[in-house]
Design brief:
CATH architecture of the largest domain: 3-Layer(aba) Sandwich
CATH class of the largest domain: Alpha Beta
CATH topology of the largest domain: Rossmann fold
Number of strands: 13
Bound molecules: uridine-diphosphate-N-acetylglucosamine
Oligomer: single chain
Helix content: 40-55%
Mean pLDDT: 96
Order of helices and strands: EHEHEHEHEHEHEHHEHHEHEHEHEEHH
Distance between the termini: 11 Å
Low-confidence stretches: none
Shape: globular
Number of domains: 2
Radius of gyration: 20 Å
Length: 354
């Protein structure tokens, strides 16, 4: 029996771990312990994901909560080191690029525990993003890197990390294919009530957009000019900013509480377009065949830009308005993200390599 510890803490990690954990649970030779760092702790940022995605309750919750990057990461490190010292472990699994990812790899590698990084090799080439620093450090320190795309593999090769890299496909595709079926079975259950017939989905939470009110105003102005309905499930970070700043929200934007994963799939499936600065949502829009306008200057998911499925506008009003009427060249999005069985490949590779 091999003992694995999965370290997760933020929304996008719950979605990825759900796919891999389901495969792990079906494996008689592997035992998974789930550690939640507590980075995301609100009911609708955490609990709802475990319930919706049927992820087993975390065996440990470190309850680190919010804080500066240093405070949050340091608190995770101290608690993870203590836990990893107590629990015999054959390997640690980390996901993506959050502070929970970097804390996981730092704590484990210093205790000589092998680390597998799922969703390795992504790069925005913008070190002002905390996630970019987390990605680079996690890839260089981890022992096995599972890259979702050939672009990610190429980044790893260029950084001299090819020997420990495996092109696995994207576990987010596994999740969307699996959970989409659940949503389709009882669509009414997941529908958000009282939406306009034609609406766009918006999410904004990157510090580059939320912490500079001028950027936020430019984005809202674009939505006002576009004039269609916008539904905006707002991350707690931006909810607070909206309240504290008293910024005027145009009447065609409806701000709602954050939604769970299944509700988000339902929202996306019925949406006209998606406007976001999230990494995961750009790709989920692509996987569900919805045009996306990315409110950032760059993206890690460069494949989505092909044929106009995704357009980068930053927080520029004119660019956002222009992108909202841009045409897509191809009718069907290509499959850049594997065959929906990345989790199976990862688990079987991991079992033989730890
Ligand atoms: C984190 C990840 C980001 C990911 C995002 C998804 C890092 C560096 N960033 O960003 O890559 O795209 O999660 O959601 O790890 N807050 C609450 N309740 C919560 C969680 C957060 O109120 O349950 C508030 C707190 O004020 C907190 C702020 O949101 O300070 C930011 O949370 P944090 O987890 O630090 O980063 P995110 O912006 O969520």
């Amino acid at each position: 029996m091999k003992r694995l510890i999965t370290i997760i803490g933020a929304r996008p990690q719950f979605v990825k771990a759900a796919a891999v954990s389901r495969v792990l649970r079906g494996h008689p030779d592997l035992e998974e312990t789930i550690v939640h760092t507590g980075q995301h702790y609100d009911q609708n940022m955490s609990e709802v994901f475990f319930k919706d995605l049927d992820i087993p309750r975390p065996h440990h919750n470190l309850d680190v909560g919010s804080g500066s990057h240093a405070e949050q990461t340091a608190s995770m490190l101290v608690k993870l080191e203590k836990l990893l010292k107590q629990q015999p472990t054959d390997a640690v699994i980390i996901y993506g690029d959050t502070n929970s990812t970097i804390a996981g790899v730092l704590a484990a590698t210093k205790l000589h525990i092998p680390v597998a990084h799922i969703e390795a090799g992504l790069r925005s080439f913008n070190k002002k993003m905390p996630e970019e620093i987390n990605r680079i450090a996690s890839d260089h320190l981890s022992d096995i890197l599972y890259a979702p795309t050939s672009t990610a593999m190429e980044h790893l090769r260029r950084e001299g990390l090819k020997q420990k890299s495996v092109l696995s496909g994207d576990v987010m595709l596994d999740s969307i294919l699996y959970y989409q079926k659940l949503v389709d079975k009882t669509p009414e259950r997941f529908k958000i009530k009282k939406l306009p017939e034609i609406y766009n989905v918006v999410t904004i939470h990157r510090p580059s957009n939320t912490d500079d009110l001028a950027n936020l105003k430019n984005i809202f102005r674009a939505f006002e000019l576009i004039g269609e309905g916008f539904v905006f499930p707002a991350h707690p970070r931006i909810k607070k900013i909206l309240t504290d700043s008293g910024i005027e929200i145009p009447g065609n934007i409806e701000v709602i509480d954050p939604v769970g994963y299944l509700q988000m799939i339902s929202l996306l499936k019925n949406a006209h377009r998606v406007y976001t600065d999230s990494g995961g949502l750009q790709k989920e829009a692509f996987m569900l065949g919805k045009p996306c306008i990315t409110l950032r200057e760059e993206t890690e998911w460069v494949e989505t830009l092909n044929h106009g499925w995704n357009i980068l506008t930053g927080p520029n009003t004119d660019k956002i308005v222009a992108a909202s009427s841009a045409k897509i060249v191809e009718s069907e999005p290509q499959s850049y993200y594997g065959n929906g069985r990345a989790s199976q490949l990862i688990v079987s590779h991991l079992k033989d390599n730890i």
